[in-house]
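Duplicate of #3305? Posting structure anyway:
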């Protein structure tokens, strides 16, 4: 079961497997998510995912089951 992951604002879509780490998917897409600790404490890797109210730490996130599409929004524009 693969999930289509769409990275914004670059608008790059790749297919990922359920359970695949988000950072790995981003890497395959050629999308650079900034990281630091890789342990969920520095929040350098925060991204916004559709249907989530709060930003999530990409380093702790795997592709969830039960959906066919997911949008990941990187913060590249601090002015919005
Ligand atoms: S890299 Fe530090 S919280 Fe994800």
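Output from current build:
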């Amino acid at each position: 079961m693969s999930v289509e992951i769409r990275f914004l604002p670059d608008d790059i879509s790749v297919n990922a497997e359920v359970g695949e780490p988000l950072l790995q998917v981003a890497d395959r897409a050629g999308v650079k998510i900034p990281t630091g600790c890789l342990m969920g404490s520095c929040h350098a890797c925060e991204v916004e995912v559709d249907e989530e109210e709060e930003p999530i730490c990409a380093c702790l996130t795997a592709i969830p089951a039960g959906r066919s599409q997911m949008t990941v929004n990187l913060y590249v524009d601090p002015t919005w």
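Confirmed duplicate; merging threads. Residues 35-38, 40-45, 57, 59 surround FE2/S2 (inorganic) cluster (CB under 6 Å). The mean pLDDT is 92.
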